[in-house]
Design brief:
alpha+beta, Double Stranded RNA Binding Domain, DNA polymerase, domain 1, hpI Integrase, Chain A, 15 helices, elongated
């Protein structure tokens, strides 16, 4: 029923759950329960109606309860849920760091390093969102972007790390559900073998935009490196005088210091990048490196198809990681030895893992530079013919 909530009116409420909704503050109410009268507010948030208790009559007077109700309803009017636990409104990135601080002591160093890379690097697009804003759609979009750029295995590893983090947040009471639940796990199958043909590589190169995304992909093709190794490249990792990229162990998949010689073409691309005051990351905006992969890749595919013509057969599907495989394959066609290709790819497997003694520790900087220069010159031939 409706009426003004006063000390007298609430104490007259009948047993059995009778309600009284205040006429002075819409959404403020009182109800008699078996163990006393309680004050409530009723509000709608995210399309759902909520009824939440403010506390018991006695410790709370009608005036105090009404003032509390007005304050909380004001929060609703500002677009927030007044009953969300404080940590649920914290940024995802802040809670990830707190989670990692706890996990550091309980995980083996290599396993911890992988999880840290997943949550701080691959999940960087989520860092600015509040925990309560990271829903299944946001997680699914991130996983799709990672799969497109790094393949199904990377998608599944990130999904596992995210699920473990949100399971922890759920146990801690920070969220009500794990947003990873219901997202798809990619079919890994066997090793992916997609290698772009010379004509396909020409199309990709010639249709690259004249922006950061375009220059990142040019570098991915020229250097055969992983997407985030270039997208998150920092000026402190580039030595243009020596023509080298030097990545610290925490920036590489195998956690080893890595030195990569640069072709003249790759050096030219890096040399033309602007240096921004107070920012060491060469690409991207915000706190991290480049993160606009999915949308830019989709626009590139559209540009390629537009140049082919509306009736032309589309280019077979390809991922950014296929550029790395393509470069490695083409360098082999140009006569580069397998152990040099593995050194360029920063693999510690296959041929390099099989050799012993001094050869297992060798750095092949000069032959790496020669191989990458011949590959860059081949790119010029393919794209200028």
């Amino acid at each position: 029923m409706l009426g003004k909530i006063t000390k007298t009116s609430v104490e007259k409420l009948a047993p059995g759950g009778e309600w009284l909704w205040d006429t002075q503050c819409v959404g403020f109410g009182a109800r008699r329960q078996t163990d006393g009268v309680f004050y409530y507010i009723r509000y709608r948030f995210n399309g759902r109606q909520h009824v939440k208790s403010l506390g018991r009559h006695g410790p709370l007077t009608p005036d105090i309860a009404r003032t509390t109700a007005k304050a909380k309803l004001g929060i609703v009017a500002q677009g927030a849920d007044p009953f969300v636990q404080p940590l649920a409104v914290e940024a995802f990135g802040k809670e990830v760091r707190r989670y990692l601080d706890r996990k550091r002591a309980t995980m083996k160093p290599r396993a911890y390093s992988e999880v840290e890379r997943h949550l701080l690097n691959h999940a960087e697009p989520l860092h600015r969102l509040r925990l309560s804003e990271v829903d299944r759609r946001a997680v699914a979009a991130l996983l799709a972007e990672i799969e497109d750029g790094r393949g199904p295995v990377a998608r599944n590893r990130l999904r596992s790390s995210l699920s473990a983090f949100f399971a922890w947040a759920l146990r801690e009471g920070f969220i009500d559900a794990n947003p990873v639940a219901g997202t798809g796990k990619a079919e890994e199958g066997g090793a992916r073998e997609r290698v772009l043909t010379g004509s396909e590589l020409r199309e990709v190169w010639l249709d690259l935009p004249q922006d950061q995304f375009g220059d990142i992909l040019r570098l991915l093709i020229l250097t055969a490196q992983r997407r985030d190794e270039i997208g998150w490249l920092q000026w402190g990792e580039v030595d243009l005088r020596r023509g080298m990229i030097v990545l610290r162990p925490e920036r590489t998949k195998n956690h080893r210091l890595y030195e990569l010689p640069l072709s003249r073409q790759a050096q030219a691309i890096l040399s033309r990048q602007p240096r921004r005051k107070g920012r060491d990351f060469i690409f991207g905006i915000g706190k991290g490196g480049y993160s606009g992969w999915s949308d830019c890749k989709a626009r590139l595919d559209e540009a390629i198809q537009a140049k082919r013509g509306p009736k032309a057969k589309p280019m077979p599907g390809w991922r950014l990681h296929d550029l790395r495989r393509t470069a490695a394959t083409e360098m082999a066609e140009l006569g580069t030895q397998p152990h040099i290709i593995e050194a360029i790819l920063n693999h510690v497997s296959g041929h390099k893992a099989a050799v012993a003694g001094i050869y297992n520790r060798a750095k092949y900087l000069d032959p790496m530079r020669d191989a990458l220069q011949r590959w860059a010159d081949e790119i010029d031939r393919i794209t200028q013919s």
